[in-house]
């Protein structure tokens, strides 16, 4: 039991570092960048509140667990904004490989049974093929949109984001897992980009 608790607290203490990873997205009041710990918490709340937008059969419990774990790799890799540069760096092979190495290291701090389960949830989120992961990915894409809308454009101004880029880089993913939610959000973004 002592070894298990030692490993679990080693992981939890490492996870605390996520609070120091600043994201490109600001708080909705625009006062400062959010950190990745705040982002993960907010997404878990999004899942609870917007559970009615999920497809039938989606397990909100699993979605929340994915969202709490999904950005832990940023402890090693940092935040890679979806609209940075030409948008390619976000999903690039180099970033994916760095994130996989980070997942190995960070989840590897846990006892083996937990490490395997947590890593499996992270891999599922990254693949975005199961209904749970598709919905989780949708929420991960829509939360920064709402923050940008509430802050008067936020990082869209920084990265010169167009309505077309928002649709192709974000809208497609959100619509896949939460079509009614994207329809509502798209109406809000159209007013901004008009």
UniProtKB/TrEMBL annotation:
Answer whether the UniProt record assigns the keyword Hydrolase to this protein: yes
| Record key words, sorted | Hydrolase, Metal-binding
User: What cellular component GO annotations does this protein have?
Assistant: cytoplasm
User: HD domain location, by residue?
Assistant: 15-182
- GO MF term set: 5'-deoxynucleotidase activity; metal ion binding
Q: How is this protein named in the record?
A: HD domain-containing protein
UniProt keyword Metal-binding present: yes
């Amino acid at each position: 039991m002592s070894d298990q608790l030692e490993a679990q607290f080693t992981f939890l203490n490492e996870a605390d570092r996520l609070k120091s990873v600043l994201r490109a997205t600001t708080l909705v009041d625009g006062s400062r960048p959010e950190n990745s710990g705040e982002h993960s918490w907010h997404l878990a709340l999004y899942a609870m509140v917007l559970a009615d937008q999920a497809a039938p059969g989606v397990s909100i419990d699993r979605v929340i667990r994915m969202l709490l774990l999904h950005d832990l790799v940023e402890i090693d890799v940092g935040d890679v904004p979806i609209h940075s540069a030409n948008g390619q760096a976000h999903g690039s092979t180099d970033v994916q490989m760095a994130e996989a190495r980070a997942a190995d290291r960070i989840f590897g701090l846990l006892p083996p049974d937990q490490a395997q389960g947590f890593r499996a949830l992270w891999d599922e989120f990254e693949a975005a093929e199961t209904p749970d992961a598709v919905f989780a990915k949708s929420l991960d894409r829509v939360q920064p949109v709402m923050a940008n809308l509430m802050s008067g454009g936020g990082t869209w101004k920084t990265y010169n984001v167009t309505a077309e880029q928002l649709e192709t880089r974000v809208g497609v993913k959100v619509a896949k897992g939460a079509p009614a939610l994207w329809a509502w959000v798209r109406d809000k973004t159209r007013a901004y980009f008009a």
